[in-house]
Amino acid sequence: MNIGRHISSTGGYESMANLTIELGGNTFQFFTRNPRGGQAKKVGPKDIEKFLKISKEKEFSKIVAHAPYTFNLCSANESVRDFTKRTMIDDIKRMEYIPGNYYNFHPGSHTGQGIEKGIEMISQSLNEIISDEQSTIVLLETMSGKGSEVGGKFEQLREIIERVDIKDKIGVCLDTCHIHDAGYDIVNDFDGVLDEFDSVIGLDRLKAIHLNDSKNVCASRKDRHEKIGKGYIGEEAIQKIVNNGRIKHLPFLLETPHEDLIGYKEEIKFVKSMRK
Ligand code: FE
Ligand code: FE
Ligand code: ZN
């Protein structure tokens, strides 16, 4: 099983890979820069070389970089949009040191301009950001739809993708907590939700799973992650999700709240034990 978790680390790729191995995983997610959008993670050639060696030896699956939460391609504030665009271009350039991996971001919040305007701004910017030369695939994350968030419905993601010119560089990351909170009934009918994803977006676009339980009920539009098995999604539904034949091969990234490394480690072990 391709599993790992989001690591809050200021270290390099080698240290994140080693921590992942210690936790029992073979993939991980990390912020490209501090979550509030400042200084980028340093990329050293030695570090990259060591990381590539380790990930080959330990058969890592693709890894996921996560853009800072402050990014917003459809803010009403032009300087926020410009900053986001410039910084995403820089992030993707840095990702090319570890070719062929994923760069995940929250589509954005329209801040009162309306969903349609938001979708238009996001896709327009993506056309300035994504280039033919990049090997990195940009992932739109499914959102809970809280506030003025774009991406709480599969149709909204499809509309963005439809307007992006370079389609082979764009995919989707499905966050189980977010879609549950957005109103998709993954507890009783995960297969039905996947059918819907397939007919609206296409399952070939789905590249990664954020595996989280939720502190809130379905359709709450809240977005508060819970430890696996401890929330409203629950162990039984999560077991079905991790064993679903249509998504089994994807990297599963945990973004759950734990107090310490032991919590991380035990959760990965727990999820692996659910795999039949
Ligand atoms: Fe996210
Ligand atoms: Fe997520
Ligand atoms: Zn979330």
List the helices and strands and how they pair.
Blueprint: E1 3-7, H1 13-23, E2 27-31, H2 45-57, E3 64-66, H3 78-95, E4 102-105, E5 108-109, H4 115-129, E6 137-141, E7 149-150, H5 154-163, E8 170-175, H6 176-182, H7 186-200, E9 206-211, E10 213-214, E11 225-226, H8 234-243, E12 252-254, H9 261-274
Helix pairs in contact: 1-2, 3-4, 4-5, 7-8
The protein binds fe (iii) ion (FE) (2 copies) and zinc ion.
One fe (iii) ion is lined by residues 66, 106, 141.
Q: Gap between N and C termini, in Å?
A: 10 Å
Number of helices in the DSSP assignment: 9
Residue share in helices? 40-55%
Ligand kinds: fe (iii) ion, zinc ion
| Element-by-element helix/strand order | EHEHEHEEHEEHEHHEEEHEH
Q: What's the β-strand tally?
A: 12
The strands making up the biggest β-sheet line up spatially as 1-2-3-4-6-8-9-12
Which residue ranges are poorly predicted, with pLDDT under 50 across at least 5 consecutive positions? none
Task: Provide a quick synopsis of the model.
With 276 residues, the protein is of the alpha/beta class.
What this model shows, in words?
With 276 residues, the chain is α/β, with parallel strands linked by helices. The chain is 41% helix and 16% strand. The protein contains 9 helices and 12 strands. The strands form 3 sheets. Strands 1-2-3-4-6-8-9-12 form an 8-stranded parallel beta barrel, surrounded by 4 helices. Strands 5-7 form a two-stranded antiparallel sheet. Strand 3 (64-66), helix 3 (78-95) and strand 4 (102-105) form a beta-alpha-beta unit. Helix 1 (13-23) packs parallel to helix 2, helix 3 (78-95) packs across helix 4 (115-129) and helix 7 packs parallel to helix 8. The longest helix has 18 residues, at 78-95. The relative contact order is 0.13. The mean pLDDT is 96. The protein binds fe (iii) ion (2 copies) and zinc ion (ZN).
